[in-house]
DNA sequence: AAGTGGTCTAGACCACAAT
DNA sequence: TTGTGGTCTAGACCACTTA
């Protein structure tokens, strides 16, 4: 027995369906809130909650006094799909692949320990992987996991099970992440595995992932071939923007500014 | 006479203030909703609305059954600050500068017209600028504005007034944007103005901006020196992620996939 | 077992858009 | 002027955390 989802969630799904299927076309007006209340036999609260979610995703917009209008459908991605390369590949209908270059257990030095919020000399697990889509190299991932998470990775067969899939099986659920995006030149390691010239531009995403208790579970540095993957963000006035433009050099990197503490030599020993 | 802001907004401000000022420290529990209802003398609706906003910004997190806890303060940026280089610079305490390389009125070719949602051969206004922070080159911006917006830019003195500042003065308010982020190699134009080698990695943000009526007002291609600026996004399970990872080569670029239709030669005539 | 947040209902008033 | 969405109140039930 699975319990029924909340009313606002059901209504949200129904509305998204009508927009995606073209029943309501771009620019057209939605029914009034009162009409939705009547049609679905629920009260105004859940109706407004569903509409608020549509607005926040940019599927709908409008002002006071008039019913909202449908807007260009900008698919959004679930958190799981976003942080997991494997789930992402499957969602876009590609075949994910990977080559595990290095899995090691190391003692965290000062910098890394600070970023992972663990004691210095804690045994962290480092994973360096080449990621593929349909057999073609797309990204180099270098990650460092806190001991609580990393110990499961040493035992797991990463060629078969995804990292997050493995961790979820042990009750560790990635819940929140902070991503910093910039561009870097390919070094010898990336040039070799991604099959590009040294110095080629790569799109870098440095991520800190938090579990359900708000504790850091890993940090990762992912370098993408920019002609294979990009990142898109929708932005609007009606809520503080989730995307922040940051200045790099000036201030201290107290906010986790630019790079990661993952030493450059990891993975180069292979 | 300015009317008082909504209750939920006042409460939100008060809560943010207590978190930022350290009255409530990271990891500590917030008061229960009931306590806030009592303290502020309002009902539960606005209280929940204020808390929801805090959650969506990652300032607070938690689960059912227990009061939420304070989380690492991830400053978020207003939409205006995000899309305006000038406002951004001022907010981070730097001196914005710029050099207008080219301002032209051109007839839109097919590709550009389609991206701007205007008739082919419409007179669009193109602006190419070098942007500076504290006198140092940081970004090259190439933008194309629809006629309704562009006509004000030809008359304005861009060295003095910001683009969006000028447009707002004429009742055109940027309201929503779609940003696509990737990395590119510096071409001769960028190499010259940003003072780097040809082929250096640059962080590129392609943006489509919409006005208050949902109409496209401009498209822009901004190329940053990656060691001068980066972009950060906070992500969480509890709402569909605003950040989308996209595959580039495979499918058609119907979603506005990668690049912009801004011809590469714009600005190179200078 | 008690208390908390998650959800829902019913009714109300106001600012603003449509006409 | 009429109707819409934006905001607020009061009260209720349930699932879950906490002690």
From TrEMBL, chains A, B:
Domain named HTH gntR-type: residues: 5-73
Pfam families the record matches: GntR, UTRA
Superkingdom assignment: Bacteria
UniProt keywords, alphabetically: DNA-binding, Transcription, Transcription regulation
Region (Disordered): 242-270
Matches recorded under Gene3D superfamilies: Chorismate lyase-like, Winged helix-like DNA-binding domain superfamily/Winged helix DNA-binding domain
Record bears the keyword Nuclease: no
PANTHER family membership: MANNOSYL-D-GLYCERATE TRANSPORT/METABOLISM SYSTEM REPRESSOR MNGR-RELATED, MANNOSYL-D-GLYCERATE TRANSPORT_METABOLISM SYSTEM REPRESSOR MNGR-RELATED
Name of the molecule in the record: GntR family transcriptional regulator
Lineage of producing organism: Bacteria, Bacillati, Actinomycetota, Actinomycetes, Micrococcales
């Amino acid at each position: 027995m699975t319990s029924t989802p909340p009313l606002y969630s059901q209504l949200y799904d129904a509305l998204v369906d009508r927009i995606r299927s073209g029943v309501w076309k771009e620019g057209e007006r939605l029914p009034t809130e009162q009409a939705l209340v009547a049609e679905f036999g629920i009260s105004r609260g859940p109706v407004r909650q569903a509409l608020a979610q549509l607005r926040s995703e940019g599927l709908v917009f409008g002002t006071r006094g008039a019913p909202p209008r449908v807007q260009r459908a900008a698919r959004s991605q679930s958190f799981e799909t976003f942080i997991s390369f494997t789930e992402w590949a499957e969602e876009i209908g590609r075949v994910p692949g990977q080559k595990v270059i290095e899995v090691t257990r190391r003692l965290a030095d000062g910098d890394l320990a600070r970023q992972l919020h663990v004691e210095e000399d804690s045994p962290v697990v480092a994973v360096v992987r080449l990621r593929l889509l349909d057999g073609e190299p797309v990204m180099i991932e270098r990650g460092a996991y806190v001991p609580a998470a990393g110990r499961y990775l040493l035992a797991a067969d990463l060629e078969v099970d995804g990292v997050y899939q493995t961790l979820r099986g042990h009750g560790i659920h990635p819940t929140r992440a902070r991503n910093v995006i910039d561009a870097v030149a390919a070094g010898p390691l990336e040039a070799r595995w991604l099959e590009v010239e040294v110095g080629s531009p790569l799109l870098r995403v440095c991520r800190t992932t938090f579990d359900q208790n708000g504790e850091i579970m890993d940090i990762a540095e992912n370098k993408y071939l920019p002609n294979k993957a990009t990142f898109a963000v929708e932005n609007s006035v009606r809520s503080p923007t989730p995307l922040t433009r940051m200045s790099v050099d000036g201030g201290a990197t107290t906010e986790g500014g630019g790079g990661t503490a993952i030493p450059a030599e990891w993975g180069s020993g292979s």
